[in-house]
Design goal:
Layout lengths: L1 E9 L2 E7 L9 H8 L9 E6 L6 E7 L9 H13 L6 E6 L2 E8 L2 E6 L6 E2 L4 E4 L3 E6 L8 H9 L10 E8 L3 E8 L4 E3 L3 H12 L7 E5 L2 E10 L2 E9 L2 E9 L1
Bound molecules: 2,6-diaminopimelic acid.
Family: Belongs to the diaminopimelate epimerase family.
Subcellular location: Cytoplasm
Enzyme class: isomerase
Amino acid sequence: MDLTFYKYQGTGNDFVVLDNRSQEITLTQEQVAFLCDRRKGVGADGLMLLQNKEGYDFEMVYYNADGRVGSMCGNGGRCLVAFVQFMGVVENEAYFIASDGPHKAYLKDGLVHLQMKDVDAIEDLEEATFMNTGSPHYVKQVEALADLNVFAEGRAIRYSDRFKAEGTNVNFVEHLPQNKLSVRTYERGVEDETFSCGTGVTACALAASRSGYESPVPISVLGGELQVSFEKEGSGFKNVFLIGPAVQVFKGEITL
Ligand SMILES: N[C@H](CCC[C@H](N)C(=O)O)C(=O)O
């Protein structure tokens, strides 16, 4: 099978994007893993299929780099919105369905604003918090984030008794002055540190709001700058938006 693919990146979280509106593409777990392989394939943290869905502008189907169907990916969602605008499917606004439900998004001043699911509950753990922002996220506040071994520490938590069956993404967040955060993330399904995780920084911003952080929260990640805006509602959050750039890197062809 000959495939035309696009490569996108959002703050360094990178994706292979395939237009499957004709429904001609079906990929095995091995084929997705091959396309995401950085040495033997195209190379990406994840792969997305753009599909049609009645009642929506499009459907987002997301796979992790290991080839398994993933849960919601915030940076991937932002990249897919940029892709559908590039393909002429939408102009500046989109309404789509992903694994965690419907999402609204719009483009403004070159940034993609993606509405994330409402978050009802943040679970308090002994030294961290845990929540689902479309994907599961463990959030641990640290100091000296730059010196942390995110791979080793993240991996230990991801494979701990509580999380080893389902897995979790693991975020380490440093609280900086002036309402700013710095975040590094170990991603499930990539099983490594990535340069950015959209659902992860969303979780970090919501967790930080409990220490007085106010919307919008600017967040530095290894691959750039993101923002998260939100409204508090009781112990939960609504109107949560992930805001940042999404860039087409190249288009290519590959034979499977
Ligand atoms: N990079 C993604 C998260 C992917 C989710 C995945 N790693 C999982 O939970 O299995 C993001 O920007 O939100």
